[in-house]
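Much of the work behind modern protein science is quiet bookkeeping, done one molecule at a time. The fold becomes a row of whole numbers, each drawn from a learned catalogue of backbone shapes. The protein below has been through that process, and both of its lines are reproduced in full.
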Amino acid sequence: MKRIIDLTGKTFGRLTVLSRAASTVPGKTMWVCQCSCPNHTIVTASTSSLCGGNKKSCGCLAKEPHSHTTFIDLTGKRFGRLVVVKRVGNAPPSPSMKSKVGPIQYLCKCDCGNTTIATGGNLRSGCKRSCGCLHREMTSKCRLKDLTGKRFGRLVVLNLLPERGKLGEVKYRCKCDCGRIHITTAGRLSSGITQSCGCYHLERIKEARTKWTPEEAKIVAHLYEIKKRCYNKNYKDFEDWGGRGITVCDEWMDPISGYRKFVDWAKNNGYKKGLSIDRIDNDGPYAPWNCRWVDWYTQANNKRNNVFVDINGVRHTIAEWSRECGLDYDTLYHKFEKGYDLFRDTVLYNLSLRK
């Protein structure tokens, strides 16, 4: 809804606004005015006709000789942030105006340094108080959220700066974890575009340029795959890792030395070609104390969905029983599905044949 400017008590030519009119013309706000002529005639007028200078009296002014009408020069006067510089002619008349001459216009200079053109009516009524900067500042203050004390990546916001960017952006002074002071805009902080003074970007470049041997490159690929499982929601099996809350330790997630530490750990903890990384505790994180390098068979027997079967006090997974008795896994699993007794008898019979 458009905001209505209250003109009550203001004077426009010989008319003084008394109150807002009870009846209104569609699309226009009407006002009850009293003329200062001897008859003190009461008339109604719209906001646009009053502020535009089209309505200045009850009609008596038009009946008087032209020499009695007066022109008020606003040059040098201040209206809000605007100072009138000079008159610059008349604005084009609107179709609703009876007069063929539009309202007088003035060139004004704003306190911010910009210039603008305004009609005398808009200046005197208070409709025009700046070049537009006042409205932008008020809007910015309404939308401004103070980010002081908040952290964005490596940056902690210290304070709001009084100056603005080229497009009026709000600027903040921040301190980076490396110790440097960095100035950036609220938009770049909130969107995540700026997360450091620039040191993080340089570190990533340095890390990307690190040269790995062929063996080390394969180890690095393991960690890259692990991070995708735990943090990339678009990864096909994300629900089995990141979706269950599985994470990677801070040591291996470090953007500077994480890959190097992982490579060193792998070399010192039994990494060989053909082995894969396995978590000892399936619900625990990827961390040096919870990981090991194992072959496919060992890893397959450490899955959380494995089925364990006890036979004569010996507990194995179906895959392990398959290996013990020399039967194909699918065949043995099919026996298990038909019942424990059939599974047990099949295993014991095949174990007796292998002795």
